[in-house]
Design a protein that fits this description.
The structure is a single chain. The chain has helices spanning 53-64, 84-94; strands at 21-24, 68-73, 100-103. The protein is an alpha/beta fold. It starts with 20 loop residues before the first strand and ends in a 7-residue tail after the last strand. Helix 2 (84-94) links the parallel strand 2 (68-73) and strand 3. It has two helices and three strands; from the N terminus they run E-H-E-H-E. Strands 1-2-3 form a three-stranded parallel beta sheet, with helices on one face.
Length: 110
């Protein structure tokens, strides 16, 4: 077999897509985070978290520039509780602009 390796361009000549898909975590990123220091599988009341307006504004600016914003959260991934409606309502109330919301399908990390 003969393999032909194409000449690659130097990084400074690489063209990246103008618009990106950006995944943004919710808790601890655009709102306060309720920590469960033991990482045990206890339900958490996410209704009392507070938005962080400056961070939401920064993400909204990326949305306005044409980037695809996907909010992705681990809410409910361990407890099995569906937090989709609560989370969507919070994002709307906080004025967060987004294209898609992914809830509970994010891997749990220690």
């Amino acid at each position: 077999y003969t393999f032909v390796r194409e000449k690659t361009q130097p990084k400074e000549n690489m063209k990246l897509p103008k618009h990106k898909i950006i995944y943004v975590d919710i808790d601890g990123t655009i709102c306060t985070q309720l920590n469960n220091k033991d990482f045990d599988d206890q339900p958490i009341d996410y209704s009392n978290v507070e938005p962080i307006p400056d961070r939401i504004r920064q993400i909204n600016e990326l949305y306005d520039k044409g980037h695809t914003i996907v909010y992705w959260t681990a809410r409910g991934c361990r407890s099995g509780i569906d937090h989709t409606e609560l989370t969507r309502d919070q994002l709307m109330r906080w004025g967060a602009k987004f294209h898609r919301l992914e809830v509970g399908n994010k891997p749990h990390f220690d």
